[in-house]
Amino acid sequence: MLTILFDGIAYGMLLFVIACGLAVTLGLMNFVNLAHGAFAMLGGYCAYVLVNVYGVPFFASLPVAFMFAAMIGLLAERTLYVHFYNRSHLEQVLFTIGLVFMTSAVVDYFLGSQQRFINLPAYLQGRFDFFGVGIGKYRLLIILVCALILIVLQLILGYTRFGSRLRAAVDDQRIARGLGINVNWVFALTFAVGCGLAGLGGALGAEILSLEPHFPLKFMIYFLIVVSVGGTSSITGPFLASILLGIGDVAGKYYAPRYGGFVIYTIMIVVLVLRPQGLFARGTSK
């Protein structure tokens, strides 16, 4: 049971890294970005090409995957997304779901439709026993990296000038502009970082989730469930929701293989019936 708990935490933290950018764009920027998983896929494929094709060390591929997804996200935000900020949510949904299909088609054309896995170094493969608990080396790495990302995000949002500017821009754009804050670039940088984190999560999760052109559609519902259950008023909510859903999903598939796939949806339905704003939301999100 402890091994399942450990694997569930690792899976949940991986979901958090990929979905936290969606929580920011949806909760703070009030933009429904269903194409968020596409940036995770691009980061994963970037790491795959670097490691499997060019022989780049796995750890060296992770920051490159982050930067690649962040730069693509910044370019898309400045050229495409910025025109939809004031549109209705329906238009945002149609626009971003169209990007998902386009991105999937491009990846399928250039890299093929088969599943891809990153060649991990030997020292990250296998498990070891720790007081009777089977701990996967790679999953332990995921937990450590994701915990570090959570701490860094909390520090940036709560204790830096950029975090204060972002909060000011979210609370009242007009006053923030009057104070000299470049709201457009604050949102653009926030969007880019969210895409970069998705790309990093895609690179880290390539070995667990597997890469394929339909990755954004396959895992879109998981990212949306994390945001729905955790709420969008903070980073802590999606993090706790990711842990809860990760443990529930892994335990459900282990103890009830035939019905385990429904556990995560059952949790979502129960939570949203009892707390429509999300389990950890402090109030109604924007």
Explain what the structure shows.
It contains eleven helices and two strands. A two-stranded antiparallel ribbon has the order 1-2. A hairpin with a 2-residue loop joins strand 1 and strand 2. Helix 2 packs across helix 9.
Protein topology:
Elements: H1 2-27, H2 36-53, H3 58-79, H4 89-111, E1 127-130, E2 133-136, H5 137-159, H6 161-171, H7 173-178, H8 183-209, H9 215-230, H10 236-255, H11 263-274
Antiparallel strand pairs: 1-2
Low-confidence stretches: none
Number of strands: 2
Q: CA-to-CA gap between the ends?
A: 39 Å
User: What is the overall pLDDT average?
Assistant: 87
What is the element string, with H for helices and E for strands?
HHHHEEHHHHHHH
Key words describing this protein structure:
11 helices; 71% helix; mainly alpha; 286 residues; two-stranded antiparallel sheet; globular
Brief summary:
This protein has 286 residues and is mostly helical. It has helices spanning 2-27, 36-53, 58-79, 89-111, 137-159, 161-171, 173-178, 183-209, 215-230, 236-255, 263-274; strands at residues 127-130, 133-136. The chain has one domain.
